[in-house]
């Protein structure tokens, strides 16, 4: 199976509740979202990381979205921008529309379906390029268990989970087994729809080695990625 590409988005939004809703919705699909709460933090992040798309609110601390449009570093000079604003900011909308990097603006409250449509247009991808992680439910499968150790498979995408939850789920799955000398984990490609999947697997390896008092070299991870 070929894993679909993941698109990186910088979200500049000072309202934590709005940001959480946007992140939760976008990361259901193959978007990785980095979140900052003001224009200064956004500019710093844009100097360090290249993004596929920028989503920015207008009203933010330190400097606003209009200022940010004018301060995009060269690294992200060609990165498309979607502006988030409210209906009573007509002058702001007109001012923002003169920026060549601006591909769309959306009025709050954000219609998520329209947001996805505008993002696809900005990235020049079809709706068929989107991967709904909910279509790949996560499960742990026991493949083999011997005196030497256990072999399991991680199938699907652990969407909405963190490393602590993953370790807890796997530990619960393994708890009925006798003392383990080694753990072989086969990872399906869908796992990598999960944000930072490679780093998560390494953290999982360390946590499981510690929990079962075995060497890190005894926790073997096989991927097709």
From TrEMBL:
**GO cellular component labels:** cytosol; protein-DNA complex
Q: Which residues carry this modification: 4-aspartylphosphate?
A: 57
Record PROSITE patterns: RESPONSE_REGULATORY
Q: Which SMART domains match?
A: REC (SM00448)
Specify whether Transcription is a keyword of the entry. Answer: yes
**Which keywords does this chain's UniProt record carry?**
DNA-binding, Phosphoprotein, Transcription, Transcription regulation, Two-component regulatory system
Q: Name one GO molecular function term.
A: phosphorelay response regulator activity
Q: Which residues form a coiled coil?
A: none
| Record has Transcription as a keyword | yes
Under the heading InterPro entries, the entry gives: CheY-like_superfamily (IPR011006), Sig_transdc_resp-reg_receiver (IPR001789), WalR-like (IPR039420)
* One of the GO BP terms on file: regulation of DNA-templated transcription
Record-annotated Response regulatory domain positions: 8-123
Q: Name one Pfam family in it.
A: Response_reg
Give the protein's recorded name: Response regulator receiver domain protein
